[in-house]
Specification:
The protein is mainly alpha-helical. The protein has one domain. The chain is built from three helices and no strands. The radius of gyration is 24 Å and the shape is rod-shaped. The termini are far apart.
Length: about 90
């Protein structure tokens, strides 16, 4: 293999390895974000009935979640206390 072709081959293989590593790290980031969202949804689903039955406000819910050391407490409290969390027409 001529020296110039070899240099081009090495350069391309490094570029491909770098692109694969970058894609791999991006995929890991997306998986981590998805796991966090699913965890938040699980927590919101579990505490939703208790929050709604006691008619807790956003601030009360957020403070309770912070006291329990729940990560992303404000986001979860926002989901649980929003109007979107309460269906307008119950299915049952």
């Amino acid at each position: 293999m001529p020296a110039r072709a070899y240099t081009l081959f090495v350069s391309l293989s490094r570029t491909v390895r770098f692109a694969a590593a970058t894609a791999s790290s991006a995929l890991r980031m997306h998986r981590t974000h998805l796991r966090e969202l699913l965890r938040d949804a699980d927590i919101a689903y579990a505490i939703g009935p208790a929050i709604q039955s006691r008619k807790l406000t956003f601030a009360e819910t957020r403070d309770a979640l912070i006291a329990l050391a729940v990560p992303r407490a404000a986001g979860i409290a926002g989901v649980v206390t929003s109007n979107y969390a309460q269906p307008a027409h119950p299915l049952s």
